[in-house]
Amino acid sequence: MAQHHKYKGAADRTHPIWQGLGRAAPGVQGRPRSGRRGRTLGRASAGKRAAGRTRDHTVPQMYLRRFAEHQGRRQYKLTLRRIDNIDHPIPAMTNNVLAGRGFYWGTTFDGIPHHSVEELFTQLEGEAATAFKAALDAPEGALPSRWPLPPGERLHVAWWMAAQILRTTRQRKRLEYTSHSPERPDVPPEIAMIAGNNPHLLYIVEHLAALAFVLFARPWGLGFTDMCLLTSDVPVVMFNHHDAEDQLAAAAVCDIMLPLDPHRLLFLPNPGMQAADPRKRTDHRMKIHGAMGMAFVDIAYDAADAFVIHHPGHDPWRHWRPDGPRLPAPWDGQDHEAPTYALEYGTLPSHLTVERRWLTEHPPARVAPPRHGL
User: Fold this and answer.
1) Phi and psi (nearest 5°) for 135?
2) Does residue 142 sit in helix, strand or coil?
3) C-alpha distances out from residue 97 to 27, 58, 71, 93, 355, Å
4) What's the CA gap between 124 and 227, in Å, rounded?
């Protein structure tokens, strides 16, 4: 990229995020910071219920609406499927799915409840929403003529993706499985409940800025596929090393996929793919055909924690069925070998696009083929 952005790492405990959390290093005063439009980070918003009792979305509604059918003011309907009962679709509204009670509440070192991480995510979501609109709502085609995104919009999406890698239920389970938390202090039960979230919240804060920088610096491919895509409670997938202990290293070297809506996705090719094809060393666009689209559905499904989501009118099950092992979940006693993925694709010439009508029109359904070997 021609423009260079310098980040101050969140692991530096003078960073404003630390101050918002009230988690200051020795000698640094922890305090809330002012957010946009006078909002204060570091305390629960006025009118919210008691600490730990809010419904915190682990995947933002602004993202889920891209996979939903608009039915009225603030009414967006999607289809939910549980991994443990995958053949039974469940109609649902975006505000009622992929949310956990008090999931992002924590406590300061002094035991004071805070909701700072959720407040931070809300700010990142608002900034990224504008960038998503620029890429996905361009009138000239399903793939915009203006690509790559301007540096500012790209930066907002990079921060949003970094947050989405770190904030999921799967990430929390991985951290709890691989770490040994210190003994909890003797505190009232209502405080102990949210204090148990602290290791995950701390992990988010310490890794967020560095992970955003890694994602920002990589080339991005914006793709359209004829296959209807699904997303899940783990929207951003790092191929072959999704549950790596070193998430920053994995984000630097793995293929990364983010479904954006039922027919478009963001794909970050790995360094080996970039070495083999100079066109993938910079931002590019792509048209994904047939079996490749089904492979992306497979991969999104494999990484899901408990739920997958798709648009009611764009059902992958019309052409596809899950088959074979998913990513293992050792925290649930699964120790089977993880599936591996190797993909190849061509880039789309800059003067071509895809007509917007193909975002809603589909070829006739056919019998789902067996799962593709990857």
Assistant:
1) -80, -35
2) coil
3) 42, 9, 17, 7, 32
4) 30
